Amino acid sequence: MTASTHTNAAGRWFLIVLGMVLAMLGGVFVWLMARSFQRAWEMRAWPKIPCVILVSEVAEFKHDEISGMEFRQLLNYGYEWQGVAHTSNHLTWRDNPASPSRELVESRVAEFPVGKSTVCHVDPANPAFAILKPDSLAPGYAIWFPGLFVIGGLGIVWRAATNRPSRPQVRS
Fold first, then answer.
1. Which is the most buried residue in 13, 33, 38, 78, by most CB within 10 A?
2. What is the pTM of this model?
């Protein structure tokens, strides 16, 4: 085996591994985005139940002595599901987002003031879990982007594995 052949084989294996890594990373993100989209889609089918805001206020907290002050909406609302009273404290699936902006959290508090009658989405499989705002369907609309990494990575693998040389350039 000549040095040139050895270099070509090593280069092909490098491209195969690189392509597989790209395809796998893209696949992980496709899966994560598909799961988020599916969950958001399912939330839209959850029953909408009347509820009343019981607690809505701004809470301040610090993660540690070095970090800056952050704010979060303390939220609690009551609803009735099949004759049983429940309370929940989730604005969205991921709870109540924190922010370094007090004004942003105050605007969320103003959107859901104490005593307000609104509608919550109740998980029929777990009626103790309810949300006020379902997740966005945006991951489903953007899933094409990590899909490009899957397709590109598999293309690199195919090209390296089939040992197709690039087309020679014609000089005029």
1. 33
2. 0.69
